[in-house]
Amino acid sequence: MTPVISATALGRRYRDQAALEDVSLAVEPGTVTGLLGRNGAGKTTLMRIVAGQEFPTSGTIRVFGEAPAENEAVLRRMVFVREEQSYPDFRVSNAIEVASWFYPNWDRELAQQLLADFDIPPQRRIRKLSRGMRSAVGIVIGLAARAELTVFDEPYAGLDAVARQLFYDRLLADFAEHPRTVVLSTHLIDEVADLLEHVVMLDSGRVVLDAPADDVRGTAMTVSGPATAVEEFVAGRAVWHRQRLGARASVTVAGPLDFAAQARARALHLSLEPLSLQQLLVHASGNSADEKVSA
Amino acid sequence: MPLDEGTPLFVQIAEQLADDIVDGVLAEGARAPSTNELAAFYRINPATAAKGINLLVDEAVLEKRRGIGMFVAAGAREQLRAGRRKRFAEQYLDPMLAEAKRLGIDTDTLVSLIQGSGWQNGGDTP
């Protein structure tokens, strides 16, 4: 299948600062891809290039096989919801109306339903809405557009946990009924981990992980127990992190551990705990506070 | 269900469905939840739910009826129970014995513990 987004050796520099470096990736149609990374990792820059709002300084970007910048045919097939989206000074209902003219697959009923779900008063001026409500307007537009490529860049500034859960639930439900390609950029990784089919992790402008979400689970394990037993068990494995508390040790090793290794760990009275996606990001960012990733 | 971090999600979905079949919650011949129903219930990607269902289709526990959905195959419950009996020792007995050894509980004590637990031989074996 032709990827919906394909980036080849993409780079973006601002003066002497590299926001993106040698980014190559492909987003397959009909998937939900998580674009993960810390603040400042380059997620927004990448999304803006995908949406044709910014030019790369090197490399190429293709969306539906074409360059997206100033390409009406591509942009109409895509909706891009930004963090802290700004709107002209008009009412919620006007913003919804304008969006409905632009997106060919717009679903009016869904838009009304979502406005009600998020308790957004349609006659209120957007300027008078709280930050969270403004974010919710973006989410309503992003979902009701039913665009073939739906890009959410940290769309939930000011939204509380309940409203974020509502967003995830509605996204999942509508995606299931109307499959499309979704890219969700976020640093709230554990919240969205189960929604993702594919994971791309950026760190300092580079891709540090690009894999199916299923493969990422069990990529690393933390082994803890009596220090001597732990050391015996991890000998010969790639160690990511080491911690000691008296005679106890806790060591994170590259996984996955096969069945025999798990049985051996049990025999040694060791406990095994897989790293969550979020913890993996912390390690991948080379920022595990007290110890560097080492072999 | 508290989804556990280590096992791939689709495997956990398959295991949950298998549990329901073993417990008789999902009877043989009954329609299994659809991909979208599972996705909404567990709050997971529909593709992941589909992979879980396919795992059970490969094992002939579920069967696809064109245009209608997935159904629990005849004999699925006994097939799953037989498979689990085979793995019972390594999954449940071995860890228990390891812990017993660690605590210095001898075989006689273990046996009397089991006998005193009110466990009735046979359970609900058909």
Report on this model:
The complex is a heterodimer of chains A (295) and B (126). Chain A folds into two domains: 211 residues, Rossmann fold, CATH 3.40.50.300; 55 residues, Alpha-Beta Plaits (2-Layer Sandwich), CATH 3.30.70. Chain A is 33% helix and 29% strand. In chain A, the strands form three sheets. Chain A has a six-stranded mixed β-sheet, sandwiched between helices. In chain A, strands 11-12-10-13 form a four-stranded antiparallel β-sheet. In chain A, strands 2-1-4 form a three-stranded antiparallel β-sheet, with helices on one face. The C terminus of chain A is likely disordered. In chain B, 25% of the residues are buried. Chain B folds into two domains: 67 residues, Arc Repressor Mutant, subunit A (Orthogonal Bundle), CATH 1.10.10.10; 40 residues. By secondary structure, chain B is mainly alpha-helical. Classes of the chains: A alpha/beta (295), B mainly alpha (126).
Write a concise synopsis of the structure shown:
The complex is a heterodimer of chains A (295) and B (126). With 295 residues, chain A is α/β, with parallel strands linked by helices.
